[in-house]
From TrEMBL:
The lineage of its organism: Bacteria, Thermotogati, Deinococcota, Deinococci, Deinococcales. This is PhoX family protein. PROSITE patterns: TAT. It comes from the Bacteria. InterPro entries: 6-blade_b-propeller_TolB-like (IPR011042), PhoX (IPR008557), TAT_signal (IPR006311). Coiled coil: none annotated. It holds the Pfam family PhoX. PANTHER family: DUF839 DOMAIN-CONTAINING PROTEIN, SLR8030 PROTEIN. Transmembrane segments: none annotated.
Length: 509
Protein backbone atom coordinates (compact mmCIF):
# COMPACT_ATOMS: atom_id res chain seq x y z
CA UNK A 1 0.00 0.00 0.00
CA UNK A 2 1.81 3.14 -1.19
CA UNK A 3 0.03 5.26 1.42
CA UNK A 4 1.92 3.44 4.15
CA UNK A 5 5.27 4.43 2.62
CA UNK A 6 6.75 7.71 3.81
CA UNK A 7 8.05 10.18 1.25
CA UNK A 8 11.75 10.33 0.59
CA UNK A 9 13.16 13.75 -0.21
CA UNK A 10 16.64 12.70 -1.28
CA UNK A 11 17.59 10.24 -4.03
CA UNK A 12 18.92 6.78 -3.13
CA UNK A 13 22.03 7.41 -5.29
CA UNK A 14 24.82 9.92 -5.75
CA UNK A 15 23.83 12.03 -8.80
CA UNK A 16 26.04 11.91 -11.89
CA UNK A 17 27.15 15.03 -13.81
CA UNK A 18 26.07 15.60 -17.45
CA UNK A 19 28.01 13.51 -19.95
CA UNK A 20 28.51 12.78 -23.65
CA UNK A 21 29.90 9.21 -23.58
CA UNK A 22 28.58 6.47 -25.86
CA UNK A 23 27.53 4.39 -22.87
CA UNK A 24 24.78 3.97 -20.34
CA UNK A 25 26.28 5.74 -17.33
CA UNK A 26 24.92 4.96 -13.85
CA UNK A 27 25.80 6.11 -10.33
CA UNK A 28 28.22 4.13 -8.21
CA UNK A 29 26.69 0.89 -6.93
CA UNK A 30 24.31 0.45 -9.88
CA UNK A 31 24.70 -1.88 -12.87
CA UNK A 32 22.68 -2.86 -15.92
CA UNK A 33 22.29 -5.78 -18.24
CA UNK A 34 21.15 -5.83 -21.85
CA UNK A 35 17.97 -7.90 -21.88
CA UNK A 36 16.00 -7.60 -25.11
CA UNK A 37 17.96 -6.07 -28.01
CA UNK A 38 16.54 -5.52 -31.48
CA UNK A 39 16.91 -8.63 -33.66
CA UNK A 40 16.98 -11.20 -30.84
CA UNK A 41 14.86 -14.25 -31.77
CA UNK A 42 12.42 -14.95 -28.92
CA UNK A 43 9.39 -16.83 -30.28
CA UNK A 44 9.08 -20.49 -31.29
CA UNK A 45 8.34 -19.40 -34.87
CA UNK A 46 11.49 -17.30 -35.14
CA UNK A 47 10.19 -13.77 -34.64
CA UNK A 48 12.62 -11.10 -33.48
CA UNK A 49 12.47 -8.27 -30.96
CA UNK A 50 11.50 -5.14 -32.90
CA UNK A 51 13.24 -1.77 -33.29
CA UNK A 52 13.27 1.48 -31.29
CA UNK A 53 11.84 0.28 -28.01
CA UNK A 54 9.61 2.68 -26.11
CA UNK A 55 6.98 1.92 -23.42
CA UNK A 56 7.57 -1.18 -21.31
CA UNK A 57 4.65 -2.93 -19.60
CA UNK A 58 5.45 -5.20 -16.63
CA UNK A 59 2.84 -7.95 -16.12
CA UNK A 60 3.71 -10.28 -13.21
CA UNK A 61 3.44 -13.83 -14.51
CA UNK A 62 1.05 -14.73 -11.67
CA UNK A 63 -1.07 -11.57 -12.00
CA UNK A 64 -4.27 -13.38 -13.01
CA UNK A 65 -3.97 -15.62 -9.93
CA UNK A 66 -3.64 -12.54 -7.69
CA UNK A 67 0.16 -12.67 -7.55
CA UNK A 68 2.74 -9.93 -7.98
CA UNK A 69 6.00 -11.63 -8.97
CA UNK A 70 9.09 -9.42 -9.13
CA UNK A 71 11.25 -12.08 -10.77
CA UNK A 72 9.01 -13.54 -13.50
CA UNK A 73 6.85 -11.55 -15.90
CA UNK A 74 5.49 -10.93 -19.34
CA UNK A 75 7.03 -7.69 -20.53
CA UNK A 76 5.47 -5.78 -23.38
CA UNK A 77 7.78 -3.58 -25.41
CA UNK A 78 6.51 -0.90 -27.79
CA UNK A 79 8.54 -0.52 -31.00
CA UNK A 80 7.84 3.01 -32.10
CA UNK A 81 9.47 3.40 -35.51
CA UNK A 82 12.43 2.19 -37.55
CA UNK A 83 15.61 3.71 -38.92
CA UNK A 84 15.91 2.50 -42.52
CA UNK A 85 19.70 2.69 -42.27
CA UNK A 86 19.61 -0.17 -39.78
CA UNK A 87 16.38 -2.03 -40.56
CA UNK A 88 16.07 -3.81 -43.89
CA UNK A 89 19.59 -2.96 -45.07
CA UNK A 90 21.19 0.40 -45.74
CA UNK A 91 18.93 1.15 -48.66
CA UNK A 92 16.39 3.94 -48.67
CA UNK A 93 14.68 2.53 -51.72
CA UNK A 94 11.05 1.57 -51.24
CA UNK A 95 11.37 -2.05 -52.33
CA UNK A 96 8.80 -4.60 -51.15
CA UNK A 97 11.45 -6.35 -49.05
CA UNK A 98 12.48 -3.09 -47.37
CA UNK A 99 8.86 -2.16 -46.57
CA UNK A 100 8.12 -5.60 -45.17
CA UNK A 101 11.21 -5.47 -42.92
CA UNK A 102 10.02 -2.11 -41.59
CA UNK A 103 6.44 -3.31 -41.00
CA UNK A 104 7.73 -6.37 -39.13
CA UNK A 105 10.08 -4.34 -36.89
CA UNK A 106 7.31 -2.10 -35.48
CA UNK A 107 4.40 -2.73 -33.11
CA UNK A 108 4.74 -4.61 -29.83
CA UNK A 109 6.76 -7.56 -28.47
CA UNK A 110 5.33 -9.72 -25.65
CA UNK A 111 8.32 -11.34 -23.92
CA UNK A 112 8.51 -13.68 -20.94
CA UNK A 113 11.47 -12.79 -18.73
CA UNK A 114 12.70 -14.35 -15.51
CA UNK A 115 15.37 -13.45 -12.99
CA UNK A 116 17.67 -16.37 -12.25
CA UNK A 117 20.25 -15.52 -9.60
CA UNK A 118 21.52 -12.05 -10.48
CA UNK A 119 20.56 -12.21 -14.15
CA UNK A 120 17.37 -11.60 -16.05
CA UNK A 121 16.86 -13.69 -19.16
CA UNK A 122 14.25 -14.21 -21.86
CA UNK A 123 12.56 -17.59 -21.45
CA UNK A 124 10.47 -19.60 -23.94
CA UNK A 125 6.70 -19.24 -23.49
CA UNK A 126 3.67 -19.86 -25.68
CA UNK A 127 2.61 -16.24 -25.01
CA UNK A 128 5.81 -14.78 -26.51
CA UNK A 129 4.67 -13.05 -29.69
CA UNK A 130 4.88 -10.04 -31.99
CA UNK A 131 2.05 -7.72 -32.86
CA UNK A 132 3.24 -5.65 -35.84
CA UNK A 133 2.13 -3.43 -38.70
CA UNK A 134 0.41 -6.43 -40.35
CA UNK A 135 -1.51 -7.92 -37.40
CA UNK A 136 -5.30 -7.96 -37.70
CA UNK A 137 -6.89 -5.62 -35.12
CA UNK A 138 -10.55 -5.00 -34.33
CA UNK A 139 -12.05 -1.51 -34.18
CA UNK A 140 -14.38 -0.91 -31.23
CA UNK A 141 -16.49 2.05 -30.13
CA UNK A 142 -18.34 4.80 -31.98
CA UNK A 143 -16.05 4.97 -35.02
CA UNK A 144 -16.24 1.23 -35.74
CA UNK A 145 -17.76 0.73 -39.18
CA UNK A 146 -18.24 4.50 -39.65
CA UNK A 147 -17.60 6.56 -42.77
CA UNK A 148 -14.68 8.20 -40.91
CA UNK A 149 -12.79 4.86 -41.04
CA UNK A 150 -14.21 3.92 -44.46
CA UNK A 151 -16.60 1.42 -42.95
CA UNK A 152 -13.90 -0.79 -41.43
CA UNK A 153 -14.56 -3.08 -38.46
CA UNK A 154 -11.13 -4.70 -38.50
CA UNK A 155 -7.92 -3.07 -39.69
CA UNK A 156 -4.34 -3.98 -40.34
CA UNK A 157 -1.57 -3.27 -37.87
CA UNK A 158 -0.53 -0.94 -35.09
CA UNK A 159 2.29 1.57 -35.69
CA UNK A 160 3.95 4.55 -34.02
CA UNK A 161 3.73 2.73 -30.67
CA UNK A 162 5.11 5.33 -28.32
CA UNK A 163 4.23 5.26 -24.65
CA UNK A 164 1.24 3.45 -23.16
CA UNK A 165 -0.35 2.19 -20.01
CA UNK A 166 -1.50 -0.91 -18.16
CA UNK A 167 -5.03 -1.69 -17.01
CA UNK A 168 -5.80 -3.25 -13.62
CA UNK A 169 -7.13 -6.33 -15.44
CA UNK A 170 -3.73 -7.00 -16.96
CA UNK A 171 -3.89 -5.63 -20.49
CA UNK A 172 -1.61 -3.23 -22.33
CA UNK A 173 -2.72 0.06 -23.84
CA UNK A 174 -0.27 0.91 -26.64
CA UNK A 175 -0.47 4.42 -28.04
CA UNK A 176 -0.16 5.12 -31.77
CA UNK A 177 1.69 8.41 -32.01
CA UNK A 178 3.47 9.62 -35.15
CA UNK A 179 1.38 7.77 -37.70
CA UNK A 180 1.38 10.44 -40.39
CA UNK A 181 3.45 9.66 -43.45
CA UNK A 182 3.24 5.86 -43.58
CA UNK A 183 0.70 5.89 -46.40
CA UNK A 184 3.44 7.49 -48.48
CA UNK A 185 6.40 5.61 -46.97
CA UNK A 186 4.78 2.25 -47.64
CA UNK A 187 3.34 2.59 -51.16
CA UNK A 188 1.38 -0.33 -52.52
CA UNK A 189 0.48 -1.69 -49.07
CA UNK A 190 -3.00 -0.12 -49.06
CA UNK A 191 -2.25 1.49 -45.72
CA UNK A 192 -5.14 3.59 -44.47
CA UNK A 193 -4.20 6.62 -42.34
CA UNK A 194 -7.59 6.72 -40.56
CA UNK A 195 -6.96 3.22 -39.18
CA UNK A 196 -3.94 4.47 -37.20
CA UNK A 197 -3.59 7.03 -34.43
CA UNK A 198 -5.73 5.24 -31.85
CA UNK A 199 -5.12 3.50 -28.53
CA UNK A 200 -4.83 -0.27 -29.00
CA UNK A 201 -5.56 -2.73 -26.16
CA UNK A 202 -3.57 -5.99 -26.17
CA UNK A 203 -3.91 -8.91 -23.76
CA UNK A 204 -0.41 -10.31 -23.17
CA UNK A 205 -1.87 -13.32 -21.32
CA UNK A 206 -4.25 -14.30 -24.13
CA UNK A 207 -2.78 -14.43 -27.66
CA UNK A 208 -6.15 -15.66 -28.98
CA UNK A 209 -7.88 -12.39 -28.02
CA UNK A 210 -7.71 -10.10 -31.05
CA UNK A 211 -6.18 -6.69 -30.17
CA UNK A 212 -8.76 -3.87 -30.05
CA UNK A 213 -8.47 -0.26 -31.18
CA UNK A 214 -10.43 1.93 -28.73
CA UNK A 215 -11.99 4.61 -30.93
CA UNK A 216 -13.93 6.07 -27.98
CA UNK A 217 -10.56 7.41 -26.76
CA UNK A 218 -10.11 9.52 -29.87
CA UNK A 219 -7.63 9.66 -32.72
CA UNK A 220 -4.62 11.98 -32.43
CA UNK A 221 -0.86 11.63 -31.85
CA UNK A 222 -1.36 9.43 -28.81
CA UNK A 223 1.61 9.66 -26.51
CA UNK A 224 0.40 7.76 -23.47
CA UNK A 225 -2.46 6.36 -21.41
CA UNK A 226 -2.37 7.01 -17.63
CA UNK A 227 -5.00 4.63 -16.23
CA UNK A 228 -6.78 4.78 -12.88
CA UNK A 229 -10.02 3.64 -11.22
CA UNK A 230 -12.33 6.40 -9.91
CA UNK A 231 -14.07 6.14 -6.53
CA UNK A 232 -17.28 5.00 -8.24
CA UNK A 233 -15.48 2.27 -10.21
CA UNK A 234 -15.39 3.96 -13.60
CA UNK A 235 -12.08 3.86 -15.48
CA UNK A 236 -10.30 7.17 -16.08
CA UNK A 237 -7.49 7.54 -18.61
CA UNK A 238 -5.38 10.70 -19.11
CA UNK A 239 -3.79 11.12 -22.53
CA UNK A 240 -1.58 13.64 -24.34
CA UNK A 241 -1.52 14.59 -28.03
CA UNK A 242 2.21 15.04 -28.65
CA UNK A 243 2.29 17.89 -31.10
CA UNK A 244 3.11 21.57 -30.81
CA UNK A 245 -0.02 23.41 -29.61
CA UNK A 246 -2.10 20.28 -29.01
CA UNK A 247 -4.19 19.23 -26.02
CA UNK A 248 -4.52 16.93 -22.99
CA UNK A 249 -7.53 14.59 -22.84
CA UNK A 250 -9.43 12.55 -20.29
CA UNK A 251 -11.50 9.46 -21.02
CA UNK A 252 -14.12 8.24 -18.52
CA UNK A 253 -15.68 4.82 -19.10
CA UNK A 254 -19.46 4.32 -18.92
CA UNK A 255 -19.16 0.93 -17.23
CA UNK A 256 -17.50 0.11 -13.93
CA UNK A 257 -14.47 -1.98 -13.12
CA UNK A 258 -15.25 -5.34 -11.52
CA UNK A 259 -12.11 -6.99 -10.08
CA UNK A 260 -13.90 -10.38 -10.25
CA UNK A 261 -14.89 -10.21 -13.92
CA UNK A 262 -11.92 -9.96 -16.24
CA UNK A 263 -13.93 -10.82 -19.34
CA UNK A 264 -16.27 -7.86 -18.76
CA UNK A 265 -13.38 -5.50 -17.94
CA UNK A 266 -11.87 -6.21 -21.34
CA UNK A 267 -14.87 -4.41 -22.91
CA UNK A 268 -14.84 -1.40 -20.57
CA UNK A 269 -12.77 0.90 -22.79
CA UNK A 270 -15.05 0.43 -25.79
CA UNK A 271 -17.57 2.89 -24.39
CA UNK A 272 -17.11 6.18 -22.55
CA UNK A 273 -16.87 9.96 -22.60
CA UNK A 274 -13.94 11.94 -23.94
CA UNK A 275 -13.04 15.37 -22.55
CA UNK A 276 -10.35 17.94 -23.38
CA UNK A 277 -8.58 20.14 -20.81
CA UNK A 278 -9.22 23.88 -20.74
CA UNK A 279 -6.36 25.28 -18.64
CA UNK A 280 -7.84 28.81 -18.78
CA UNK A 281 -10.69 28.01 -16.39
CA UNK A 282 -9.55 24.58 -15.21
CA UNK A 283 -12.37 22.57 -16.77
CA UNK A 284 -12.89 19.40 -18.77
CA UNK A 285 -14.90 20.11 -21.91
CA UNK A 286 -17.06 17.34 -23.36
CA UNK A 287 -16.32 16.01 -26.84
CA UNK A 288 -19.78 14.45 -27.09
CA UNK A 289 -21.36 15.49 -30.41
CA UNK A 290 -24.92 15.16 -29.05
CA UNK A 291 -24.21 17.24 -25.91
CA UNK A 292 -21.82 19.92 -27.17
CA UNK A 293 -23.41 22.37 -29.62
CA UNK A 294 -20.00 23.76 -30.56
CA UNK A 295 -19.22 20.46 -32.25
CA UNK A 296 -22.50 20.55 -34.17
CA UNK A 297 -21.87 24.15 -35.22
CA UNK A 298 -18.16 23.81 -36.12
CA UNK A 299 -17.55 24.85 -39.73
CA UNK A 300 -14.57 24.58 -42.07
CA UNK A 301 -13.35 27.68 -43.95
CA UNK A 302 -15.66 26.80 -46.85
CA UNK A 303 -18.71 26.75 -44.54
CA UNK A 304 -19.12 22.97 -44.53
CA UNK A 305 -19.88 21.26 -41.22
CA UNK A 306 -16.67 19.82 -39.72
CA UNK A 307 -18.43 16.92 -38.00
CA UNK A 308 -21.64 15.02 -38.79
CA UNK A 309 -21.55 12.58 -35.88
CA UNK A 310 -19.51 11.23 -32.95
CA UNK A 311 -17.31 9.09 -35.21
CA UNK A 312 -16.18 12.24 -37.06
CA UNK A 313 -15.47 13.98 -33.75
CA UNK A 314 -13.32 11.10 -32.49
CA UNK A 315 -11.49 10.54 -35.77
CA UNK A 316 -10.23 14.14 -35.70
CA UNK A 317 -10.12 14.70 -31.97
CA UNK A 318 -7.56 17.49 -32.33
CA UNK A 319 -9.85 19.63 -34.49
CA UNK A 320 -12.75 18.79 -32.17
CA UNK A 321 -10.74 19.79 -29.10
CA UNK A 322 -9.75 23.13 -30.55
CA UNK A 323 -13.34 23.78 -31.70
CA UNK A 324 -14.67 23.46 -28.13
CA UNK A 325 -11.97 25.53 -26.40
CA UNK A 326 -9.38 22.91 -25.44
CA UNK A 327 -6.13 24.65 -24.50
CA UNK A 328 -3.20 24.07 -26.87
CA UNK A 329 -0.06 23.32 -24.84
CA UNK A 330 3.66 22.77 -25.52
CA UNK A 331 3.71 19.15 -26.72
CA UNK A 332 2.17 16.98 -24.01
CA UNK A 333 4.33 13.87 -23.60
CA UNK A 334 3.89 11.42 -20.74
CA UNK A 335 1.28 11.73 -17.97
CA UNK A 336 1.37 9.85 -14.64
CA UNK A 337 -0.74 9.84 -11.48
CA UNK A 338 0.96 10.45 -8.13
CA UNK A 339 0.48 7.28 -6.02
CA UNK A 340 -0.02 9.19 -2.74
CA UNK A 341 -1.77 12.45 -3.64
CA UNK A 342 -3.70 11.44 -6.77
CA UNK A 343 -2.41 14.53 -8.57
CA UNK A 344 -1.85 14.15 -12.30
CA UNK A 345 1.63 15.07 -13.60
CA UNK A 346 2.25 15.88 -17.26
CA UNK A 347 5.44 16.55 -19.22
CA UNK A 348 5.16 19.46 -21.64
CA UNK A 349 8.33 18.65 -23.49
CA UNK A 350 9.07 21.83 -25.47
CA UNK A 351 7.72 24.00 -28.25
CA UNK A 352 10.32 25.52 -30.55
CA UNK A 353 7.55 27.57 -32.20
CA UNK A 354 7.24 29.56 -28.98
CA UNK A 355 10.94 29.50 -28.09
CA UNK A 356 10.22 27.04 -25.26
CA UNK A 357 13.27 24.78 -25.70
CA UNK A 358 13.42 23.42 -22.17
CA UNK A 359 9.85 22.41 -21.37
CA UNK A 360 8.26 21.92 -17.97
CA UNK A 361 6.38 19.42 -15.84
CA UNK A 362 2.95 20.55 -14.71
CA UNK A 363 0.54 18.93 -12.27
CA UNK A 364 -3.16 19.20 -11.67
CA UNK A 365 -5.55 18.17 -8.95
CA UNK A 366 -9.14 17.19 -9.74
CA UNK A 367 -11.90 18.88 -7.70
CA UNK A 368 -12.81 16.78 -4.66
CA UNK A 369 -9.90 14.45 -5.50
CA UNK A 370 -12.33 12.74 -7.87
CA UNK A 371 -10.76 11.74 -11.19
CA UNK A 372 -14.19 12.00 -12.90
CA UNK A 373 -14.54 15.68 -11.83
CA UNK A 374 -15.41 18.35 -14.40
CA UNK A 375 -12.96 20.91 -12.95
CA UNK A 376 -9.38 21.01 -11.67
CA UNK A 377 -6.62 23.29 -10.36
CA UNK A 378 -3.17 23.21 -11.94
CA UNK A 379 0.34 24.36 -11.14
CA UNK A 380 3.89 24.11 -12.46
CA UNK A 381 6.00 21.39 -10.78
CA UNK A 382 9.43 21.87 -12.42
CA UNK A 383 10.79 24.03 -15.24
CA UNK A 384 13.58 22.88 -17.59
CA UNK A 385 16.61 25.03 -18.35
CA UNK A 386 20.21 25.70 -17.30
CA UNK A 387 19.07 26.51 -13.74
CA UNK A 388 17.35 23.20 -13.14
CA UNK A 389 19.75 21.17 -15.33
CA UNK A 390 17.19 19.16 -17.31
CA UNK A 391 15.45 19.85 -20.57
CA UNK A 392 12.59 18.42 -22.64
CA UNK A 393 10.90 16.09 -20.12
CA UNK A 394 9.35 13.02 -21.70
CA UNK A 395 8.44 9.71 -19.98
CA UNK A 396 7.57 9.76 -16.28
CA UNK A 397 7.27 7.01 -13.72
CA UNK A 398 6.54 7.31 -9.98
CA UNK A 399 7.90 5.11 -7.25
CA UNK A 400 5.58 4.25 -4.32
CA UNK A 401 7.17 6.97 -2.16
CA UNK A 402 5.79 9.51 -4.62
CA UNK A 403 9.17 10.34 -6.15
CA UNK A 404 9.11 11.09 -9.83
CA UNK A 405 11.63 9.59 -12.27
CA UNK A 406 11.80 11.33 -15.64
CA UNK A 407 13.69 10.80 -18.89
CA UNK A 408 14.52 13.59 -21.32
CA UNK A 409 14.22 13.84 -25.09
CA UNK A 410 16.28 16.58 -26.69
CA UNK A 411 16.37 14.67 -29.97
CA UNK A 412 14.62 17.02 -32.34
CA UNK A 413 16.01 20.37 -31.32
CA UNK A 414 19.19 20.46 -33.41
CA UNK A 415 21.46 23.42 -32.63
CA UNK A 416 19.52 24.68 -29.63
CA UNK A 417 21.25 25.97 -26.51
CA UNK A 418 20.55 22.79 -24.50
CA UNK A 419 23.33 20.39 -25.35
CA UNK A 420 26.10 22.49 -23.78
CA UNK A 421 24.76 22.03 -20.26
CA UNK A 422 22.56 18.96 -20.63
CA UNK A 423 24.81 16.48 -22.49
CA UNK A 424 23.20 13.27 -23.72
CA UNK A 425 19.60 12.51 -22.85
CA UNK A 426 19.36 11.48 -19.23
CA UNK A 427 17.13 10.21 -16.44
CA UNK A 428 16.35 12.40 -13.43
CA UNK A 429 14.90 11.90 -9.95
CA UNK A 430 12.60 14.45 -8.27
CA UNK A 431 11.11 14.40 -4.81
CA UNK A 432 7.55 15.74 -5.01
CA UNK A 433 7.14 16.61 -1.32
CA UNK A 434 9.38 18.24 1.30
CA UNK A 435 12.04 20.92 1.01
CA UNK A 436 13.70 19.23 -1.96
CA UNK A 437 10.54 18.99 -4.08
CA UNK A 438 11.02 19.73 -7.77
CA UNK A 439 14.85 19.65 -7.71
CA UNK A 440 16.35 17.49 -10.49
CA UNK A 441 19.00 14.87 -9.65
CA UNK A 442 20.60 13.09 -12.61
CA UNK A 443 20.45 9.30 -12.20
CA UNK A 444 21.53 7.97 -15.59
CA UNK A 445 22.94 9.17 -18.91
CA UNK A 446 22.11 7.46 -22.19
CA UNK A 447 24.50 6.72 -25.09
CA UNK A 448 25.01 9.02 -28.08
CA UNK A 449 21.93 10.04 -30.12
CA UNK A 450 19.70 7.92 -27.87
CA UNK A 451 16.71 8.51 -25.66
CA UNK A 452 15.86 6.48 -22.60
CA UNK A 453 12.17 5.59 -22.77
CA UNK A 454 9.45 3.51 -21.15
CA UNK A 455 10.81 3.11 -17.61
CA UNK A 456 8.94 0.64 -15.38
CA UNK A 457 9.71 -0.86 -11.95
CA UNK A 458 9.53 -4.46 -10.87
CA UNK A 459 6.92 -4.57 -8.07
CA UNK A 460 9.62 -4.90 -5.37
CA UNK A 461 11.50 -1.83 -6.65
CA UNK A 462 14.74 -3.73 -7.12
CA UNK A 463 14.83 -3.61 -10.93
CA UNK A 464 14.17 -0.66 -13.19
CA UNK A 465 13.54 -1.68 -16.79
CA UNK A 466 14.36 1.04 -19.34
CA UNK A 467 14.45 1.15 -23.13
CA UNK A 468 17.51 2.57 -24.87
CA UNK A 469 15.84 3.98 -27.98
CA UNK A 470 17.54 5.03 -31.22
CA UNK A 471 21.26 4.93 -30.25
CA UNK A 472 23.27 6.35 -33.16
CA UNK A 473 20.14 7.80 -34.78
CA UNK A 474 22.01 10.66 -36.46
CA UNK A 475 24.58 8.38 -38.13
CA UNK A 476 25.03 9.44 -41.76
CA UNK A 477 25.93 5.96 -42.98
CA UNK A 478 27.11 2.59 -41.75
CA UNK A 479 30.68 3.93 -42.14
CA UNK A 480 29.95 6.99 -40.04
CA UNK A 481 28.19 5.64 -36.94
CA UNK A 482 27.78 7.97 -33.98
CA UNK A 483 27.11 5.06 -31.57
CA UNK A 484 27.69 1.35 -31.35
CA UNK A 485 25.68 0.86 -28.17
CA UNK A 486 24.16 -2.64 -27.97
CA UNK A 487 26.06 -3.90 -31.05
CA UNK A 488 26.49 -7.65 -31.51
CA UNK A 489 29.98 -9.07 -31.04
CA UNK A 490 32.01 -8.35 -34.17
CA UNK A 491 29.63 -5.57 -35.31
CA UNK A 492 29.50 -1.82 -34.70
CA UNK A 493 25.84 -1.36 -35.68
CA UNK A 494 24.01 0.03 -32.64
CA UNK A 495 20.90 -1.75 -31.42
CA UNK A 496 17.96 -0.30 -29.48
CA UNK A 497 17.49 -2.49 -26.44
CA UNK A 498 15.67 -2.99 -23.19
CA UNK A 499 18.01 -2.94 -20.19
CA UNK A 500 17.44 -4.04 -16.59
CA UNK A 501 19.05 -1.69 -14.04
CA UNK A 502 19.91 -3.21 -10.65
CA UNK A 503 21.31 -1.85 -7.40
CA UNK A 504 18.18 -0.26 -5.94
CA UNK A 505 17.44 -0.99 -2.30
CA UNK A 506 13.82 -1.91 -3.12
CA UNK A 507 10.81 -0.46 -1.32
CA UNK A 508 10.77 -0.39 2.46
CA UNK A 509 7.51 -1.68 3.90
FE1 LIG B 1 7.10 9.14 -29.14
FE2 LIG B 1 5.98 11.85 -28.01
O1 LIG B 1 7.21 10.57 -28.00
CA1 LIG C 1 7.64 10.14 -25.76
CA1 LIG D 1 5.07 6.61 -17.93
CA1 LIG E 1 9.79 12.92 -27.20
Amino acid sequence: DPNKVTPRSLPPFRPVPAGHADALTLPQGYRYQTLAPWGEVFTADGREIGFNHDFIGYFPIDLLEGGNSSTDALLTINHEYVNALFVGGDTRERTGTQIEAEMRAMGVSVVRVRKEGREWRIVPDARNRRIDAMTEIELTGPARGSAAVKGATTVRGTIGNCSGGQTPWGTLLTCEENVDGYTKAWPGTGYEAMHQGWVTEIDPFDPAWMPKKRTAMGRFRHENAAVTVAKDGRMVVYMGDDMQDACIYKFVSRGKYDPANRAANRDLLADGDLYVANFGNGSWVSLDYARNKKLQEARAADGKALFANQADVLADARASALAVGGTPVDRPEDIEIHPRTGEVYASLTNNAKHGNYFGQIIKFRETGDDWTAQTFLWDVFAVGGPQSGFSSPDNLVFDPYGNLWMVTDNSDLGGNPIKAYHGNNAMFFFATEGPNAGKAHRFAIGPVDAEMTGPVWSPDGKTLFVSIQHPGEDSESLDKLTSSFGARAGSRIPRPTLVAIEGFPGWRA
